[in-house]
Amino acid sequence: xxxxxxxxxxxxxxxxxxxxxxxxxxxxxxxxxxxxxxxxxxxxxxxxxxxxxxxxxxxxxxxxxxxxxxxxxxxxxxxxxxxxxxxxxxxxxxxxxxxxxxxxxxxxxxxxxxxxxxxxxxxxxxxxxxxxxxxxxxxxxxxxxxxxxxxxxxxxxxxxxxxxxxxxxxxxxxxxxxxxxxxxxxxxxxxxxxxxxxxxxxxxxxxxxxxxxxxxxxxxxxxxxxxxxxxxxxxxxxxxxxxxxxxxxxxxxxxxxxxxxxxxxxxxxxxxxxxxxxxxxxxxxxxxxxxxxxxxxxxxxxxxxxxxxxxxxxxxxxxxxxxx
Length: 324
Description:
The protein is mostly helical.
């Protein structure tokens, strides 16, 4: 079945190709660790030093593998990489991981070493050739050694106080980049669309027209809030993070906030749709109050008073205007 894929199966690799694959893998991992270090250096210098040390370890293992290859097969190393081998463990692109927070990056680094160790152990168990088994076992031991080195580097560079400071900085960045603009969008989408949606509902008592008004108001508000947030601050001086991320959080949450009480009007029966919309509004306002209390440290009853009172006034205004 090899003609179905351009990739070679691991079981078909020669010992030279296995060594070449290990060399390229070590090189890729070193580059990933250096990318993490450079990305984290300004905000999390202690963790950046850990990744610097892990990259050096990868370089040392790559040098040992190159020396082994030269001793056994000569200086010309075959070009073979992870993507050339079917079933070989993959690495997530750096740009997919960098937005997930410092703890997720640390966990990704640990998973990288575990994946490599497990793969080499499984590959060694499937071969009957003693020399190949030894080679794969040595590679697995090297990956396990990387994990031990990572733990040692973490103990050296990341004491309890430093880790607490970095975690606090990461939490604050998460709040500024995602929660704060998302909450502002949710409040705007949930509250500001109450008046037009319920005014249209009570003025027309036509559920489809009401849904279209709600859809237009929600999407329009989402686009407006998203662009406004993204254009308001580039994040360089304020430290609020990427304007694209903030704009996305604000725009999406604004749209969802409005759609929550617009979607019930897909139900043809007016009063059934309206009662469901009222219930959804209740939960939306309580969710906003909970987020304010949980992430913005606003006293819960003050958050409830502000959000519920404001939302109720806007809701009442929409109903009165629509019924007039």
